[in-house]
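Q: Convert this sequence to structure tokens.
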Amino acid sequence: MKYTYSTIFVMLVVVFNVRAQKVEVPVDTTVVTSHTTVIKGKTIPYKATVGFQPVWNENRMPIVSLSYTYYKRSDIKNDENRPLLISFNGGPGSASVWMHIAYTGPRILKIDTEGFPVQPYGIKANPNSVLDVADIVFVNPVNTGYSRMIEGKDGKMPDKKLFFGVNADVKYLADWINTFVTRNNRWRSPKYLIGESYGTTRVSGLALELQNRQWMYLNGVILVSPTEIGFKFAGPIEVANRLPYFAAAAWYHKMLPPELQNKDLLEVLPEVENYTINELLPALIKSGYLSASKKEEVVNKMAYYSGLSKKTIKQHNLEVPKGYFWKDLLRDKDGYTIGRLDSRYKGMDIKEAGENPDYNSELTAWLHAFTPAINYYYTQELKFKTDLKYNMFGPVSPWDRNKDNNTGENLRNAMAMNANLHTMIQSGYYDGATTYFNAKYVMWQLNANGKLTDRLSFKGYRSGHMMYLRNEDLIQANEDIREFIIKSSAGINKGSKY
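A:
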């Protein structure tokens, strides 16, 4: 084949231009599509908006553009009483994909009934979505999903410190929420925040930030698999709080003694919780000053409730790390490890020896299904096309954790000042990262004065960190949100007062 000089020149110019092109970040755009779905037997029409909305600096120049997906029922003419649910995932550095296409949204990924990936990958209707009772917006913080920082006129990127930190994260997202609520005429609507994992730190901080700096008062906050949200977990408390989770995971894998294994999980856990608070915690506080007989008694009981050997517990001075538990629980049974975020999942290490699993078996399984599903969903169903990569986990390092994390205190203060603000906690019993018993501990700290009992609730599920991946829990967890929204928005026209 022969080429002329002019042909070669044109080819080189085309190649150069293609290589020189930048992938553009939409700064302020929307793509709107219309859909219908069936929820609880009723047909629900809705509009889906894939949008980009900026955050501006003090000179009113855009410094970041956050991608979001907004679902709004299209058969509701007057939305002044229509709740708005604003959804964040965690990480920090995680996109909104998880709750978006597996929990509350109108479309969810194809998985089996226990949450394991199946092929062909894809999306299906979610008959349990809470879109029947609330409009939902899924927000991607900076560098997650399609969200990105915006290069300035000087060619420089904004300072990461404006976004990557406990307090910075809350501050700029509060500004973003204010703009979104204003643009979409939702100031009159009852407003709810839902956050998962680190997202619970985020929404706990936002509850007070929105109230104090944006004058936006919420009706509810939902904490899904909460972190410590700034409350102190250390020493004997942190160690003791592991045992109820150990018992749950061991029960699932049939590693408990017959007298426990033959009981239902929800019969076992209260017994373990009672022992943890009243016996194990005092013993751990005494540490090496326990009498030999008392220490032997504690070792026996911990082994009884955890599925671990007495030798392992003794060798760790009663303080078995969770990583070791994930590696060791099934070591002598079948040699598999168990998952960190969901201990129902098994993993296979190259060597059975060692102190920690080689990888997170549950996360590997989830990425199988989520990554192709979200990329397919945006391009084919929501008609959003871009060359930007969808960041399941985006670069957000270094994340500033040095400043005081008072997000739990902030949520408690927001509830104290706003008599209409309710909080619900949702946790999976098999979550080894943010355990259900730690979630209960968080709830107890929120209610330090005992006066918030009627506005705080805890819901537990027989699955892990993302409890909604198990179909039975997907149904129940969405129903719990539905009931929470209906209950917390009832009677608000009578005034916010004690």
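The first helix runs from residue 5 to 20.
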